[in-house]
Each structure stands twice: as C-alpha cells, then as structure tokens.
Amino acid sequence: MLPLGFSIPPIPEESRGVVYTKPWVVELLLDLADYLPASDLVDAFAVEPASGEGAFLTAMARRLIASCERQGRPLTDCLKSLVSYEIHEQSAQATRVSVIEVLMDLKVDGNTARKLAETWVKTGDYLFDAARLPRADFVIGNPPYIRLEDMPAETAGFYRRSYPTMRGRADMYIAFFEAALRQLKDGGVCVYICADRWMLNQYGAELRHLIASRFNVQTIVEMHNADAFDADVSAYPAITVIRRGSQGRVVVASAVAPTGPVDSRELAQSLRAVTNGQGAKPYPPIVSSAVVESWFKGSDPWPCSSPSQLALLRHLEERFPALEDGEHTRVGIGVATGCDDVFITKDRSLVEADRLLPLAVASDTLTGHLKWSGNYLVDPWDSEGLVKLSAFPKLKSYFETHRDILCRRHTAKKNVAGWYKTIDRVTHSLKQRPKLYIPDIKDEFNPVLDNGETYPHHNLYFVVSDVWDLEVLGGILLSSIAQLFIEAYGVRMRGGYLRFQAQYLRRIRVPNPQSIKPRQAQRLAEAFRARDREQATMIALEIYAIESSELEAIRGC
C-alpha cells in the first residue's frame, strides 16, 4: 500500500511496453484458465491487470455475461465479478467504450452496459492496488514489457520494495507475475502470455523460487513462432498456466502460426487431455506437446523451448548425476586479467622466464585439437599469493611501464597495494593437470584435450577429473546428448551462437564412468579424437539407454 502522501510519477507514454494480443490467443488463454461460460463466473473474481485496448477484457465480458444469463441472474450481479486496470486514462476510456459496444451487441441495455464498464475498468496501476484487492480466482492477461531502468526512479524503487522477486535488470512483468500469484485464492489460476526469458535468466530466479514454493505450473506453451501479437515484436513469448496448489505433472507445448481459423476450445482441450494422462491429442499443425512428470525445484531454470527435448531432459536429470560432482570432477573458467593487452604476450624475453605461463586461448581450439599459439600470461602470482615485484626486476619494470592503465581497473582500485594483480588468482597446479577445454561462444560443443601443457584464458572453460578418462568424457560431451543440455538451458546470442558457460556445463548429466563398458569407452575415445559426433552420439545413446525413436528429438538441437 502507498504511504500517506506518497505519489508515483506516471510512466512515460513511450515506455509503456504495450503489445496487443491476437484474438485467437486471447481465447486460448481464457480456455486454458477454465474461464468458461458453463462455469459460475459471476461468483468468481477475475482480474485483467493491464487492459491496453481491451482485448482480454471484452472477451472476458462476453463469457461473464453468458455465464450470468445461463444462471438466470440479473446482470448487475456481475459488477464485482471482474476488474481491469489501465494506467492511462485515455486508454482506459477507450476500453470502457469497447466494453459498452460488446455488451450492447449482447443485447445489454445502455445504462447497464455503461455501469458495468465503468465499474470494471479502473484507471490506475494494478501493482499499486493488488494487495488491497479481493483474493482472485483468475488473473489473466498480457503484462506490459518495460525495463525498470526506463522508468522514473521513484516508481522503480516502489516496485522493487513491493515486489521482492524483482532482482537485477528485471522487467516489469516480473512484478505482475508476483502480484498475480500472491493475489490468488487456493486453486486460483494466473494465465499470462509474456516474454519467457525469466524462465532461464538470473533475474527470474526469485520468481521461479516463489512459484516452486507454493504453486502448480500446469501448462507452458512456447509461442516464439506463433505470431501471437498484432505487432512484430521480438518478445519470445510463452503462455504460462500457474495455479495456487501442489505441483503435479506439466504439459509443455510449442505453437506455430496458424494458417486458418483456430478453435481455441479444442486446442485447450487437447492440451488438457495430455495433462490428464489421456495420451497425446494433437492439434496439427499448430501445437506439439509433451508431459513432464516432475517439475524444477527452487530457482532452477525452466528450459521450455522444445516439448520433446524437455521431456527427455527431465528423464536424464532424474537418472544420471551432474557432470560436476563436488568431489571428483570440477568445472571452472580460465584466468581473467582485466587488461589482456598488458598481461598476454608472445615475447619470451619480456620478463623473467618463470613469470611466463603458457596460456591457451579460444582460437587455439578451433580445429578440435589444442594448437598452442605461443601466448603467455605475464604471471604476478606464486603459490603464496602475489609476488613481490622487488624480486623480479624485469617484471617490475614491465608493470611499472603500464602502471597507469593497470591502476584504472576496478580490481586495482579495490586492492591498491595489489595494483598489478590479475582479476583472478592463478592456480599453478591446474597447468600440469590434463583437462578438457571448452570455448565459451560456439554453435556446437567443442571439447578439446590439454595434456597439462597450458593454463586457460577467461574465454575457455575447463573440466578436470580424478575419475574420468578425459577422452571418454570428451566423447560424451561431443555427443548430441550433451548439446541437448546447452541448447535447453543456454540462451542463444545474435548469429545463433550458444554460451557454453559453467552454469550450463554443470547441468549436463553423465553416466557413472565405471558403468561404461570397455568397448564403449574405446569407441567414445576414438570418436573424440576423430571429432566424429555421429559415432559419439550413437555410443552415448547406448550408454544412456535412450530408445532409437528418441534420437530425432536429440538431433533437433
């Protein structure tokens, strides 16, 4: 609730984040929410939190009036059944006019139509009023797309204080999710169409944790290629159906743009049939779907772009341990210097010989085999910590020459005495260890073996293990199964490239190395050395006991 005397600056018109939803998508959301004329919608309470031009509200009004008439009740009984918010008065008034027109088309008299429209449509901010509203049976809509940094600081501050799931560079829709979920009655449902980046990104972690703690994710329909909005926007949308209650099985679906009329009721029923275990009831050519028996816990990301891949992913996660086990196998990243121009050299006479550490960079791995390009790290560390420059005259002279630029780095400002340090400390024992290098930005997994000859740069991740033959593990990582995990959890960059970061690598599930038969291990190692992804995948399928019919789902990566 707003403090007494506190006023919120309005959101600028150009920052409203308005994206209008196509009618068939609106009807699908209402059907997935079970907001149906055959139900008692009059005694329920439904919220549309951001009406825009009224696409959701007018569709909800039609269903509410039909429900009321089916029960033989007066239309004035619907006054408290529905509320919609629009922050700008001009848009709110336009929505009221649209509602009145719809109601009068339904033979509602003018006075009643105006009374209902004026009662239902509020000029205001749902996020300010949500805590004061009655508990809701339904919250349905398309939240606005607005970055917090695009809003007045006072407004953004209020939202952050009121909705603690908003973390980092979050979008406003995070707050709309939290407000809706907290408003739901037991059994109440929130159905939104919204950008789906929060399902994977760090700024959605708190929201995912909230949902996992007390809500039931029922259905997710990925709509990236479904042409869901009137405007061409790069929103990567998904429909989410989330109910207050215990988590059960989840239907994950993917939709494409329809080529003709869509029967939203039939489409919703087909998805519901899958949820109820009645088997796939496809609605070609619009939707493909799969059932996930167990959902993600805590703040774990939700990789929902491909139903068949997600079903396989969850199956693997339930049966196999993670690549990094906390004891025998570790994933890490190479050294970040904060100033590569100073800390990386090919000049072997630049400083003392023992202050040069052979450094592997991403370009050394392009062929699939390590081809060291002769780069060295100018190394300011030893086993005790930062070296004393007085003990290394050439190193001291070199760093002093570049002192101004080194001192401008954030790490130097935090540690004035250690102005010549790299951002990351060097662990010299890592150089001698055999390890797999994995370059960060690639279109395909590219594990490369280093036999203890170099130290990794920050653009290389590494895997070390006390229990794996690294060529055998390299074969596993070369396979399409490992690629599946990166495709599912990672976010593609421009140009279609993937980030092979530690947070995604750690999610890869691998078999127990002792469970791999000698012949399988030999063939994996051979595939790794030959860069034969096809053979690596076929042997991995055998080891993971994945049916051949599932191969195409993996190849879809």
Q: Can you describe this structure?
A:
- With 557 residues, this protein is α/β, with parallel strands linked by helices.
- It folds into two domains: 17-305, Rossmann fold; 329-555, no CATH class.
- Helix content is 35%, strand content 18%.
- It contains 21 helices and 21 strands.
- A nine-stranded mixed sheet has the order 3-2-1-4-5-7-6-8-9, sandwiched between helices. It has a four-stranded antiparallel sheet with strand order 10-20-16-18.
- A hairpin with a 2-residue loop joins β14 and β15.
- The protein is elongated, with a radius of gyration of 29 Å.
- The chain starts with 22 loop residues before the first helix and ends with a helix.
- Mean pLDDT is 89; it is low at 1-17.
